[in-house]
Amino acid sequence: MTDQSADFSRLHEDGSPERLAIDTIRTLSMDAVQKANSGHPGTPMALAPVAYTLWRDFLRYDPAKPDWPNRDRFVLSVGHASMLLYSVLHLAKVIEIDADGVPTGNPAVSLADIEQFRQLDSKTPGHPEYRMTTGVETTTGPLGQGCGNSVGMAIAERALAARFNRDGHTLFDHDVYALCGDGDMMEGVSGEAASVAGHLKLSNLCWIYDSNHISIEGDTQIAFTEDVGRRFEAYGWNVIHVDDANDTAAFAQALAAFKATDDRPTFIVVHSVIGWGSPRAGSEKAHGEALGEENVAKTKEAYGWPVDKSFYVPEGVSEAFSDAIAGRGQPLRESWEEAFGRYAEAFPAEAAEFQLMRQGKLPQGWDEALPTFEADAKGIASRDAGGKVLNAISPKLPMLLGGAADLSPSTKTDIKGAPSFEPNDYGGRNMHFGVREHAMGSIANGMALSYLRSYTATFLVFADYMRAPIRLAAIMEVPTVFVFTHDSIGVGEDGPTHQPIEHLATLRAIPGLDTIRPGDANETAVAWKVALTHTHEPTALILSRQAIPTLDRSTYASADGVEKGGYVLGDSEGTPELILIATGSELPLAVQAHEKLTAEGVKSRVVSLPSWYLFEKQDKAYRDSVLPPDVTARLAIEQAGSFGWDRYVGTKGETITMSTFGASAPLAKLQEKFGFTLDNVCKVARGLIG
Question: Are 576 and 519 found together in one domain?
């Protein structure tokens, strides 16, 4: 026995390996926050027994293969408690995998990484970030988002099981755990997501709620006094209370009860004292800032810990913790791999399909089903064209799942002939999210994090309710598709509350989000193609309610130009005097103006610019070929705010855009009022060229 192992009894009075591991998680968290002088030590300290018990005794996880498809998922929705997760990943000896899923042999989180908590380019940022740190299943921080993601992951497990499991061949039967707190419970998105999960009877989902009654402003009594457990009972969850977070036996019993529940999700209410063991326990400071050197020392003394040691991991702690997890997870993972081999022999097509999904790839030839649309002066709404495209490609993409926030008849996003995803049919493909836009977005992200190609749909004006998950999809680089219809004042009589103005600008402002507003049916088909070929970018498809003429592509350029974000649709002979730029339903208006001005002898060019994101990815030579720098007479036409258009029209150009909210009236009256008429476009254009 070494000196350190002989010291177990000095480190804590009971000398148990369990307590030693729990206090190691606590002290690593304290030391990391103290060194960074930034972060939240209280929750990791209080929930160390919970995380320890879940990981050591229940989580199906192989630290050597942390991307094993049938592993249990652990979501830290309380992302501010990131040191809890980093400490666990370190002690579990989780192995880092690279972007291709290949183990590097390095630890996912080393002790040196923990010492660099919240520092530039470290693998231990202030909140867990997907892709940055192996073992982090989703980016969390904005409270409630992890809760929604976990519902999406549980839905994905059910969908994968329905798609691939066969008699005698079970590929998917994993569970999803989310650790959440009072802040999560206050955010509306968690309630929306919990309601969905309860309706769907997702018995593979377990939320562990840290009820410590502390928020940043102090005791939750000042703002949050409801009985959360009874609320979840009303949602249709199995609710279990654990009176003391330190009672690992009681918590283990609660987890066993979850495993035995097969008709509803489980909500375990764990009562804790934030910053347990700290002289400042129960204060908001234990939650929201470092304890201070003196209090760290006193806390370690209370634990029976060496006061003079920082980032101290006693000998044997990591080995015992990791061996317990791997001892359960490695045989399960190896058995799964053997089972998948047998499955591939019995069902080669299905096995190949899943392997493509796992790699984020699409079946060969899937885009051959994309429809083309004949020229039509009357045309169709791009939402209708989008629905036709979705239904044409869906048979080729069986794991394309999604739905609308109670609006599929309006957004045209239902897959015809396919069943709904419901408790009695997890093989359904049409999701019914209800009027829950915020949860819809976070759930769809969770589905995308679990191999599915997920999409959502609602009116563009309600993108406001979804901004957090859209932004997080971009941060995580997951290819969720967000369909938004009713994209302009074209909504007409519904008036300003339903007529988006600033929404295009706010979506275009999100780094990494491809916002595409197609200008006719064929551009819509290419837009869907682009969205589904993205592997690291989410897409916002912006579609119209009103009919848009389908352009004659024998006269005008191919809609394939959408793949470059912007392209020359129609041109003059020689250098143009004027460039008309438009997106969406205003593109045919630009074409009409181009034709009229050309007939008057004006050399004009019309540019379709549906995706600023893709256009900016092209090299300067291409961008200059579309928008020649020496042609300064430029007019942008879009039924949205002008914000951002200055980069394309320059200081000498103009825009016909919206500078106010809309109005309630028939579309023709609105177009006349706000200047979206052929006469006005030509008038402004003539003024630009004198």
Answer: no
Determine the pLDDT at residue 11: 40
Alpha-carbon distances of 55 from 198, 430, 649, rounded to whole Å: 25, 34, 56
Residues 616, 531 within the same domain? no
Q: Given the residues 437, 537, 586, 638, select the one marked as catalytic.
A: 437
Asked if 319 is an active-site residue, the reply is: no
Q: What is the Cα–Cα distance from 251 to 254, expressed in whole angstroms?
A: 5
Q: Which domain covers residue 327, as residue numbers?
A: 3-333
Give the closest residue to 370 by CA, choosing from 353, 398, 400, 390: 390
Burial annotation 168-178 (CB, 10 A radius, 16+ → b, else e): ebebbebbbbb
Give the span between the Cα atoms of 305 and 45, in whole angstroms. 14
Local structure of residue 519 (DSSP, 8 states): S
Cβ neighbourhood burial of 88 (10 Å; 0-12, 13-18, 19+) = buried
Residue 459 to residue 542: CA distance in whole angstroms: 9
In a domain, 370, yes or no: yes
CA-nearest of 122, 143, 118 to 34 is 118
| pTM passes above 0.90 | yes
Residues 6+ apart with CB under 8 A from 62: 68, 71, 325, 326, 329, 330, 332, 333
Using the structure block, give the residue that is written with the tokens 């007479």: 633
Domain membership flag for residue 77:
yes
Chosen domain end from 549, 573, 598:
549
What is the number of other CB atoms lying within 10 angstroms of the CB of residue 368?
9
Cα–Cα distance measured from residue 21 to residue 135, given in angstroms and rounded to the nearest whole number:
19
Same domain, 325 and 426: no
Q: Verify that 130 and 272 share a domain, yes or no.
A: yes
Query: Residue 654 pairs with which residues in a beta bridge?
Result: 635
> Quick one: 583 and 449 in the same domain?
no
Number of folded domains that form the chain: 3
CATH code for the domain of 592: 3.40.50.920
Tokens of 375: 């020229």
Residue 537 has pLDDT above 90, yes or no: yes
Q: Which of 96, 109, 106, 99 is nearest to 66 (CA)?
A: 96
Q: Which of 549, 572, 601 is the last residue of a domain?
A: 549
Domain shared by 567 and 544, yes or no: no
Q: Where are the beta strands (DSSP E) in 418-563?
A: 430-432, 453-459, 481-485, 514-516, 539-542, 547-550
The pLDDT of residue 147 is: 98
CATH of the domain at 131: 3.40.50.970
In-domain check, residue 346 = no
Could you count the other beta carbons within 10 Å of the beta carbon of residue 338?
A: 10
Q: What is the pLDDT of residues 584-630, one digit of tens each?
A: 999 999 999 999 999 999 999 999 999 999 999 999 999 999 999 99
How many helices (H) and strands (E) would you count in the chain? 27, 22
Residue 278 confidence (pLDDT) above 70? no
Q: Are 596 and 649 in contact (CB under 8 A)?
A: no
Residues 585 and 540 in one domain: no
Cα first-last separation, the chain: 93
Q: What is the DSSP string of 189-246?
A: HHHHHHHHHHHHT-TTEEEEEEE--EETTEEGGGT--S-HHHHHHHHT-EEEEES-TT
514 with 424, same domain: the answer is yes
Taken in order 606, 612, 618, 623, the sign of the CA dihedral is positive
Percent with pLDDT over 90 in the chain: 90
Residue 120 has what pLDDT?
Answer: 96
DSSP string spanning 299-359?
Answer: HHHHHT--TT-SS---TTHHHHHHHHHHHHHHHHHHHHHHHHHHHHHH-HHHHHHHHHHHH
Q: Is residue 350 part of a domain?
A: no
Task: Determine the Cα–Cα distance for residues 57 and 65; give it in Å rounded to an integer.
Answer: 18
